[in-house]
UniProtKB/TrEMBL annotation:
Family annotation (Gene3D superfamilies): Hypothetical protein af1432
Top-rank taxon, per record: Bacteria
Species whose genome carries this gene: Kyrpidia tusciae (strain DSM 2912 / NBRC 15312 / T2) (Bacillus tusciae)
Domain HD-GYP: 79-286
Name assigned to this protein: Metal dependent phosphohydrolase
Length: 330
């Protein structure tokens, strides 16, 4: 299985590996189907730009670290419902949210990494919610790497999942953090720490963030984690930056915008080259990343010509020099 851009999809040799969903989160095309070229146009109009496919090159890549699509879709539709309720000035459905958070935590806990389903594989109406679910998943992985306990993971994930909830009631970019804080701080069973994630997720260590220009330790660690996850997710989804470049961009801000400890936890947990990435090695061979073993930045690569599998962790002299031509930009 691997992710391909809609423009690289070839219906002669690629089958869908995961379903494609419509704007309402219903299955439009099931796994195993091929997509007729006529249909591709329709999907493009919906804002879908990537699919997960099976083809000869990606044979044997299972992406078991990827969240199950139904779990992901439930979390997305659940969040859409939260936004609708809040926009209608109705109570936020906290019990349902807590259930979703419990699921996300158990998904992250039982895997060494969680590969994101890119929000570009979903209709544009649902993308803001998919983004927030991905930010919650990334934040949880960082929290796990920082040895957070269950209570800390829950408060962090709730804050990350709801970090942009202020957008349900205000279209103004600079006002949504405080609007979100005001919604969340009035909910009894929600920790004030989660509410502060919404308030502070656009603040940065150097005081250049918004809305208050908080500096250094005035910013809660959870908000730093959510802020870094937010930046990374926007890079890979909105701007289609390849994951290794998005990590580089985050590393470049270590100590100035984001805590070094947070950036380090990110690099320890998030792979630079997810399985399915087509790469060029420094020995001249093109290959495909087939799995992550121990080291997030040193995956196992299958040489396309020979089928030989090389662990880059065990072979430190072999390096990925660039992404191969049709490689996906997540
Ligand atoms: Fe935001």
């Amino acid at each position: 299985m691997r992710l391909v851009k809609i423009s690289d999809y070839n219906h002669h040799n690629m089958q869908l590996a995961k379903p494609v969903y419509d704007r309402k989160g219903r299955i439009l095309l099931g796994a195993g189907n091929t997509i007729h070229p006529k249909y591709l146009e329709k999907l493009k109009e919906m804002g879908i730009s990537h699919f997960l496919v099976e083809d000869a090159e990606s044979n044997g890549i299972t992406l078991e670290e990827m969240l199950d699509m139904p779990t992901w879709m439930d979390a997305i539709l659940g969040l859409q419902n939260v936004y609708n309720q809040v926009a209608a000035k109705k109570p936020l459905p906290l019990v349902a949210v807590q259930k979703t958070i419990g699921q996300l935590i158990s998904e992250v806990k039982r895997r060494k990494t969680v590969l994101l389903v890119p929000s570009t594989s979903i209709a544009s109406e649902l993308r803001p919610y998919a983004h927030a679910v991905n930010v919650a998943l990334l934040s949880l992985q960082v929290g796990k790497a920082m040895n957070y306990n269950d209570l800390q993971l829950r408060d962090l994930a709730l804050g990350a999942y709801l970090h942009d909830i202020g957008k349900a009631i205000t279209p103004e970019k600079t006002k949504h953090p405080e609007a979100g804080f005001n919604i969340l701080r009035n909910i009894h069973d929600l920790s004030l720490r989660s509410a502060h994630v919404s308030f502070q997720h656009h603040e940065t260590l150097d005081g250049q963030g918004y809305p208050r220009g908080l500096k250094g330790t005035a910013i809660h660690e959870y908000a730093q984690i959510c802020g870094a996850a937010n930046m990374y997710e926007n890079l890979i989804s909105l701007r289609e930056t390849p994951p290794h470049e998005a990590l580089e961009a985050l590393m470049a801000l270590s100590g100035t915008k984001y805590l070094e400890s947070v950036v380090k936890a990110f690099v320890d947990r998030i792979p630079s080259y997810p399985p399915g990435t087509m790469v060029q090695l420094n020995n001249g061979e093109p290959g495909i990343v087939i799995r992550i073993d121990t080291h997030m930045q040193r995956p196992v690569v299958r040489i396309l010509a020979s089928g030989q599998e090389i662990s880059l962790t065990d072979n430190p002299s072999i390096m990925i020099t660039e992404l191969a031509r049709d490689s996906l930009r997540l």
